[in-house]
């Protein structure tokens, strides 16, 4: 499979690129600064330098790929449009090239659903919602665009992220799950979702 990864220099995106290559896939890593890509060079890896917010610049990176992974995320807690604007550009590039499969990293904390326990519903998530209001607003805008798109989408919804080692994790369709998860396991879940058509058109909760 040829996978185009946006946010490839981020902490989830780097794991996606590495694990995809280890699994025998080919990868196009879309980056603003190639020097920040902490992945060993290999013939299976192509680095495409572009600003993700510009559809014309990223279309060549999407053209001919089998799937797109968007691991974009905000830096800091201030107002941001990186996820929603990036998603808009990615969807435009996919529409221009006829690529359909898409997995987007969202955030468990931006939503309350039946998978959340009482403490999360009444205390933890309302507090997070105030603390991370701008980022969560942008995340929800991005997710709305993905749901409205004509793509074979999956929205990955992890809880609090850690840099812990790989361990067994769980997933659930259209339901929040878990309290924490390591970024390496989010990457593993993304690659598993790409190969699982049952996740198309669904959010996918992932956690321990």
Automatic annotation (TrEMBL):
GO MF annotation: an example: riboflavin reductase (NADPH) activity
InterPro entries tied to this protein: NAD(P)-bd_dom, NAD(P)-bd_dom_sf, Polyketide_Oxido-like
Domain of life: Bacteria
Coiled-coil regions listed in the entry: none
Pfam family name, one: NAD_binding_10
Annotated NAD(P)-binding domain residues: 7-196
Identification of the protein by name: NADH-flavin reductase
Species, as recorded: Actinocatenispora sera
